[in-house]
Amino acid sequence: MNKKLVGGDAHTVAMLSKIVLLAHMLSSLAIAASQDLNFIYSGFRSTNLSLDGSAELTSNGLLRLTNETMRQTGHAFYPNPVTFKNSINGSAFTFSTTFVFAITPEYANLGGHGMAFVIAPTRGLPGSLPSQHLGLFNGTNNGNQTNHVVAVELDTIRSMDFNDLDDNHVGIDINSIESVRYASAGYYSQLSDKLTNLTLISGQPMQVWMEYDGMEKQLNVSIAPIDVDKPSRPLLSLSRDLSPYLNSAMYIGFSSSTGSVYSSQYVLGWSFKMNGLAEALDISRLPKLPRLGPKKTSKFLTIGLPVLCLSLVFVAVSSVSYGIRRTRKFAEVLEDWELDFGPQRFKYKDLYTATKGFGDKELLGRGGFGRVYKGVLPISRIQIAVKRVSHESRQGIREFVAEIVSIGRLRHRNLVPLFGYCRRKGELLLVYDYMPNGSLDKYLFDQPAVTLNWSQRFRVIKGVASGLFYLHEEWEQVVIHRDVKASNVLLDGEFNGRLGDFGLARLYDHGTDPQTTHVVGTLGYLAPEHARTGKATTSTDVFAFGAFLLEVASGRRPIQPAEDVILVDWVFARWLGGEILEARDPNLGTDYVAEEMELVLQLGLMCSQSEPAGRPSMRQVVQFLEGDIPRPDISLLRLPASDLSFSRFDNFALSYPSSMGKSFSNLSVAESLLSGGR
Ligand SMILES: Nc1ncnc2c1ncn2[C@@H]1O[C@H](COP(=O)(O)OP(=O)(O)OP(=O)(O)O)[C@@H](O)[C@H]1O
Ligand SMILES: *[C@@H]1O[C@H](CO)[C@@H](O)[C@H](O)[C@H]1NC(C)=O
Ligand SMILES: *[C@@H]1O[C@H](CO)[C@@H](O)[C@H](O)[C@H]1NC(C)=O
Ligand SMILES: *[C@@H]1O[C@H](CO)[C@@H](O)[C@H](O)[C@H]1NC(C)=O
Ligand SMILES: *[C@@H]1O[C@H](CO)[C@@H](O)[C@H](O)[C@H]1NC(C)=O
Ligand SMILES: *[C@@H]1O[C@H](CO)[C@@H](O)[C@H](O)[C@H]1NC(C)=O
Ligand SMILES: *[C@@H]1O[C@H](CO)[C@@H](O)[C@H](O)[C@H]1NC(C)=O
Ligand SMILES: *[C@@H]1O[C@H](CO)[C@@H](O)[C@H](O)[C@H]1NC(C)=O
Q1: 533 CA to centre of ligand 4 in angstroms
Q2: CA distance 219 to 198
Q3: Mapping DSSP to helix (H, G, I), strand (E, B) and coil, where does residue 668 land?
Q4: What is the pLDDT of residues 187-233, one digit of tens each?
Q5: Ligand located closest to 144 CA
Q6: Contact between 186 and 168 (Cβ < 8 Å)
Q7: Domains present along the chain, CATH in parentheses
Q8: pLDDT digits (tens, 9 = 90+) for 254-288
Q9: Distance from CA of residue 352 to its chain's centroid?
Q10: SS3 state at 154
Q11: How high is the pLDDT of residue 668?
């Protein structure tokens, strides 16, 4: 009995120790399995990546991170967490990865914004932003040590805010979009050890290698075209222990973003190995990129070749004779500092083709700054409006172009998108998105053929208010529009009001003659203190917005020279008489909502006060219009007539005699300055 018991105990103990051993083996097996993660994807067909944003798998197995949508992020992550650190002493393991990518920009030299291989604590980096943040960070967490994000970025736009080197660089990012190591894209060829440049947005597939040595605590990054072996010398090398930056369990994948312009960013294949060297990708097995441009058939060779030979001779002859003329015709001014703005810079030749040689047929209109032409970009077929602004002085142009480029990043549904610019001698060309329904003033003044009904007008008003609010308060910097008025509000295909021309007045503020204070804006929209001091502020914009409100509601111009009537005075008089609704546009008939009309007119008066402090902010204006706060109380409003009468403009105009000869209506001071200067 006793013996048996002992025997039974021994048996149990043996069993138990076996189980413990088994459990231990299993757990160490599990650890080993997760530690030594090793995969190779030659194309991503039937893989289980976790995708978000614009990322998708195409039918032939390409991973397409971004599509043709602006300001998008796309993420693709390996679905399971990966153990990056030794659980005993917390040091980061050796790992290695390699992938093949391609970036095809929408225009040959214009693409946005880039992509990155990323190691992150979460799958999909929720809360991250597109554009310059590459879908990795946002304005709040960028640079924060609690991010635990390590990435290799392939950045194709130069972001001044983040001290980017250029618009074609590779960088190692640790917790911040400002890279700790970066270099222009290129590789050291194995034979000569010479650095050869690469263009990330060439549309050609390229391969990236990222290798971390956990013992040496060194991270190397290389890049090369796919027909070139891994460079013997890395492009970037960082000696740093990654242990403090990595959590034990991390996710690995890709992040990508577009901005004002887009590119399609693809990953063709990806290999990863923990504790070892990632398996080499077999380039021949990777999926094919979509073809660019039209297909060439073999027929082309048989018929095309002789034709080609003939045309070659023709081209050779004609190029000699036309060469000189052409160069002159398409001459541009391109200075070194502009190279930074590569993506936003258009070729004059392309714009010339797009607008059919700036023909009269394509002329959309002319304003104070110059003529505006309609065009269609070759290849992408995007409709554009090109504004030709003459600019004699070279002074300030650099700041202005920098500003244009930064403004080009602004995106809001109530702003006219600015695609970029081109510069010639004495001339600047600005390229905007084409607005099919033209400018708002055409629907308001001078017995228009088509007018807008009240609900359309009210929607335009709310839209423009939110666009201006965005410029003033919602963007990274305060942007002052300086020229808010009905003719600068354009209507898109859905009759949304969109503010155009922003920042343009600035060009003249940078000015020709530093002796005089330049006031740029349009009479009737110009706040008194702006006329006096020459300084534009957000409240001078609000003043102009007030004039705009009154215009849209009344269908009258802010100054009617024939009648010597100033619109604000006129509406104010109606209000004093207790009949503010009398100021409405007679063209509306009975189609209007009395409460909204009254709100718009009252708000117009409130914004038109001579005292800047009395005017509301654009935030308040939006709240009034949306009915979020009760309608403004304007019973105490003071609008001293003397302050708004012609005398103010007389004084002002005295210093610019050339403007006196012209009609006040719709005359921008900038124009008079310009014509005076020539
Ligand atoms: N993006 C655009 N899409 C379509 N039409 C446009 C576009 N930009 C301008 N236009 C047309 O060109 C005309 C001239 O525009 P522009 O902005 O130069 O003049 P303005 O606003 O009347 O005057 P100012 O230059 O003093 O602001 C506009 O009235 C509009 O019809
Ligand atoms: C791009 O991706 C976004 C997000 O998934 C989607 O809403 C949009 O329709 C896509 N656009 C195109 C042109 O495929
Ligand atoms: C794909 O990954 C997700 C997330 O880990 C998982 O829930 C799902 O079961 C996986 N599907 C397949 C087919 O592996
Ligand atoms: C952590 O442990 C591993 C093996 O267990 C060892 O190779 C490595 O050197 C250790 N790291 C540190 C910082 O002690
Ligand atoms: C920024 O990203 C972090 C981390 O993903 C997120 O928690 C935070 O809400 C984001 N902030 C903003 C302002 O979106
Ligand atoms: C970093 O992020 C953490 C957590 O989100 C936050 O508490 C901390 O204030 C941030 N630090 C800085 C410097 O922004
Ligand atoms: C390569 O690129 C760098 C940085 O843009 C530039 O300075 C250099 O001149 C380029 N070299 C060649 C051979 O194009
Ligand atoms: C990084 O590159 C250097 C220089 O070529 C090399 O000595 C080192 O072994 C490399 N380290 C890794 C982790 O590949």
Answers
A1: 69
A2: 21
A3: strand
A4: 998 777 889 999 999 999 999 999 999 999 999 999 999 989 899 89
A5: 6
A6: no
A7: 37-278 (2.60.120.200), 307-434 (3.30.200.20), 437-678 (1.10.510.10)
A8: 999 988 778 899 999 999 999 999 999 999 999 99
A9: 24
A10: strand
A11: 33
According to the model, what pLDDT value does residue 570 have?
87
Residue 302's φ and ψ, nearest 5 degrees, are -70, -45
Measure 492 CA to ligand 5 centroid, in angstroms.
33
Q: Is 387 flagged in the annotation as binding?
A: yes
Atom from ligand 3 closest to the CA of residue 79: 5
Token pair belonging to 16: 């138990």
CA–centroid distance, residue 88 to ligand 4 (Å): 8
Ligand 6 pocket check for 140: Cβ under 6 Å? no
Q: Residue 161: CB partners within 8 Å, gap ≥ 6?
A: 132, 476
Q: Which of 171-185, 326-340, 544-558 has the lowest mean pLDDT?
A: 326-340
Note the pLDDT tens digit of each residue in 441-477.
999 988 888 889 999 999 999 999 999 999 888 887 7
Query: What would the DSSP string read from start to end of 320-364?
Result: HHHHHHHHHHT-----GGGGGGGGGBPPHHHHHHHTTTT-GGGEE
Residue nearest to atom 3 of ligand 3 (CA): 79
Residues designated catalytic: 483
* Beta carbon of 197 within 6 Å of any ligand 7 atom: yes
DSSP state of 297: P
Report the chain's mean pLDDT, rounded to a whole number. Answer: 80
Q: Is residue 405 classed as helix, strand or coil in its secondary structure? A: helix
3-state SS assignment for residue 664: coil
Closest by Cα among 322, 331, 227 to 283: 227
Separation CA 616–CA 596 (nearest Å) = 18
The number of the ligand nearest the C-alpha atom of 194 reads 7
